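Team,

Forwarding the record for the chain on the shared tracking sheet. I've put the sequence and predicted structure together so nobody has to dig through attachments.
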Amino acid sequence: MRTPLRHYAVFYFCFYAALGAYTPYVARFVDYLGFSGLVAGGMLGIWYASRIVAPPLWSRAVAKSPTPGRWLLAGCALSGLAFAVFGVVHTVPQLFAVMLLFGFFYNAVMPQFEAMTLSALSDQPEHYGRLRVWGSVGFLVVAGTYGALLDRYGEQWFVYASLPWFVLMLWAAWPHRNEPSRRSAGSATAPALLSLWRRAGVRPLLFLALITQASFGAFYVFYTLHMQANGHSGLAIGGLWALGVLVEIALFWHAPRLIRRYGTQPLMALCLGITVLRWIVTALLAHSLPIMLAAQATHALGFALFHACVMQRMAGLFPAHEASAGQGMMYGFSSGLGGVLGALIAAGLWEWHGGMAAFLGGAVLTGLALALLLGTRAKPTTPSAMA
């Protein structure tokens, strides 16, 4: 029996609410412990590196299991337990070790769930955005409030204030525990990653997603500290994160109509072009709250619409029985390796010349992604999969 689609929306909400507590404020936590920006960059580098290893290993185990929902439940439970350990470690080696453990389980969960979602949507992948939007709502609720919370109670409460969301994530995974395998009769074994890698259209999409992810390194690691350094309060910074997610929600909701009307290629080019401008403005004019509000409003394109287009192409490249392996490859190669490169590049630029250098570096990377996209001929699209 199929799980009602509302349960997919609930899981997205809880998963990304936990991420909203973690991603925007972990650099504040590292700074509170007395460590440098290089340590913060290293933490996020390990976080993204775990995406290289965990999703492919996890997806192959899931592909062989008759009850993949149990793997989802286990990943959520182990993610919460690992995150709790951050509350009792205080040295750099300990932080890095816990990050590796936490990142392995947390980053293994979403590629599996994305594959489950696309499978549940069957021949209507364009409606993915209207489920994924609830993840943006969850991120908004938490990221928009935790800056003021930490201002009031202090960074020492970072771990304990975040843990309830991991408990809720486990609760949201429970309805999916008995979901059957989506494998077809002729796909009893996990698909070979090398054959998927060689498939036409896969490598250009993966490299495009990798470079785009890398361009967000400064944003995910140093945006909060960059805004603090330019005189903005925790409340204002939380509001900036919240605004970015609010416009993201609106775009996710309208993404199916936009993709059907314009196709993925021109929309992705628009998203990348505007993101180049966003990083330049963030680098040079961060002191101006009105300008930062305008820059954050473009997150609807740079993240939401771009991600919806990528997922649309993924649905066309990987049929249902290959969806988990395809999502694992996307997470590991692009989100994982791209995230590592982005975090390390941003950390080096931050240490060299602060936020201005880090965000200008992001603009250069986004420009490279745009050049790659324009140099790649899009495959002809079909009504079911606009690849």
